[in-house]
């Protein structure tokens, strides 16, 4: 609420013209106050949404990355488990490459039984 309107409401209304002017000014002040409130509400809502999205993304990424790194760091290096994981990953990559781009020397499996 503006200060000028609060002061003018204390003044006695002398004529209908003054009363009408007071009503018009009050309506304009109310519209300005509503605009200011809408801007502040939008800014507060945007800030809340941004904080919410940040918190959700941080929580999910921490919940995925931390256990993955912890698991990766708990496996000892240079042993049969690690070499088996590496060999298995390379074999899987090779198989996917074969399935995605069959070459002329690789026979395409028949769709009907022979």
What's this, in brief?
This protein is an all-alpha fold and 114 residues long.
Strand content: under 5%
- Total count of helical runs of at least 4 residues: 3
End-to-end CA span: 88 Å
Total beta strands: 0
- The dominant shape is rod-shaped
Could you name the ranges where pLDDT drops below 50 across 5 or more consecutive residues? none
Care to describe what's here?
The protein is mainly alpha-helical. It contains three helices and no strands.
What's the arrangement of secondary structure elements?
Elements: H1 3-8, H2 16-74, H3 80-100
Descriptive key words:
114 residues; rod-shaped; 3 helices; mainly alpha
């Amino acid at each position: 609420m503006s200060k000028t309107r609060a002061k003018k409401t204390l003044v006695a209304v002398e004529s209908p013209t003054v009363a009408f002017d007071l009503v018009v000014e009050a309506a304009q002040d109310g519209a300005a106050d509503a605009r200011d409130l809408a801007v502040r509400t939008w800014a507060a809502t945007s800030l809340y949404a941004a904080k919410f999205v940040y918190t959700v993304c941080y929580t999910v990424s921490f919940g995925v990355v931390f256990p993955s790194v912890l698991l990766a760091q708990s496996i000892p290096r240079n042993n049969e488990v690690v070499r088996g994981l590496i060999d298995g990953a390379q074999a899987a990559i090779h198989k996917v490459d074969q399935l995605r781009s069959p070459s002329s020397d690789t026979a395409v499996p028949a769709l009907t039984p022979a």
